[in-house]
Design brief:
By secondary structure, the chain is mainly alpha-helical. The chain is built from 16 helices and no strands.
Length: about 325
């Protein structure tokens, strides 16, 4: 068994770690669980050496993102990308006919569906669909992936609506919200890989949750970097649980606000009409955003309803 001092030396690496993470692992060491220690050491070393297995971004999602990075991309280019994947095209039409975008009549034509949804909406939907089918999928940790997917989509919806309020790119805020926890999925994939090589090892659920909480922001940042996202615009993903500063970017503040309110179970699980505005007021203050609690509460409720519609349409 390696000493606590040796463990702390391992953490003196070029990754964003916190005292609570060190303490978590020290706690595990007191339980004399050698495999917990070995797994975390290997994870840190893989991150240092850029050997973490990052999932390949789905082709359609990648093309949509590349178009979104180019302000000169037009409607026809987006339509061509959607047409290249029949499953996504079908779901785009399905969502265009949902209460989210409902028009006077149902439509069965992709071009009309895209016209109804709009470019910003199309980017959000295509990214969501391709990621759900290709990235947010793991049979071993199905419940964890579903939970992360649902929370990420809700945060994306909230972020998009707050961005609209500030008259900045709603699709960028949506993308940040949807991808900020992708590192959680990478972490559980690393667990799966380790267990496949050590089939008799079973990690305790509380251990996985605590370690994932501390590692996944950095893993998310590594994923976005490998997928070609501009580092200067998305770097804060690597420490998204830390409160923003006064000079932090507006997108960092929006993400922190959405993340905070979704993490507050008392707000999510309560009757909306009876929920005090205090949680909203407190979190808005923490996020350093100038927005009224009443307005943000309305955004949250609308986003929750939108999430339910999407889940019911997509299954």
């Amino acid at each position: 068994m390696e000493s606590v001092e040796s463990l702390k030396k391992i953490f003196d690496v070029k990754v964003e770690t916190r005292e609570e993470l060190i303490q978590s692992i020290v706690d595990e060491l007191t339980k004399d669980n050698q495999h917990n220690f070995i797994f975390i050491r290997q994870l840190i070393q893989s991150m240092e050496q850029n050997k973490i297995e990052i999932p390949i971004l789905p082709i359609v999602a990648n093309r949509i993102l590349q178009l979104s990075f180019n302000p000169n991309s037009d409607y026809d280019k987006y339509a061509q990308v959607v047409k290249s994947d029949t499953s996504i095209a079908i779901n785009v039409i399905k969502l265009a006919n949902s209460p989210l975008y409902k028009g006077l009549r149902d439509i069965n034509d992709l071009q009309l569906a895209i016209s109804r949804i709009g470019i910003e909406g199309l980017k959000e939907i295509v990214l969501m669909l391709s990621l759900k089918m290709k990235i947010f999928s793991n049979k071993t940790f199905k419940n964890e992936f579903e939970k992360t997917w649902r929370a990420s989509l809700l945060i994306a919806l909230i972020s998009s609506k707050v961005a609209e309020y500030y008259k900045i790119s709603s699709s960028k805020a949506y993308t940040i919200g949807l991808l900020h926890d992708v590192g959680d999925l990478i972490f559980y994939n690393q667990i799966s890989l380790y267990q496949s090589k050590n089939p008799k090892i079973v990690f305790a659920e509380n251990f996985m949750q605590r370690i994932s909480y501390s590692f996944h922001p950095k893993l998310s940042a590594l994923a976005l970097l490998s997928w070609g996202f501009p580092k200067e615009e998305y770097d804060f993903i690597g420490y998204h649980h830390l409160p923003p500063k006064d000079n932090s970017s507006i997108n960092q503040k929006i993400l922190y606000l959405a993340l905070s309110i979704v993490s507050a179970e008392v707000v999510i699980d309560s009757d909306y009409d009876e929920v005090s505005l205090f949680p909203y007021q407190f979190m808005i203050q923490q996020a350093k955003l100038n927005i009224s609690p009443e307005f943000f509460k309305a955004i949250f409720i609308k986003s929750k309803n939108d999430l339910q519609i999407i889940q019911s349409m997509l299954g």
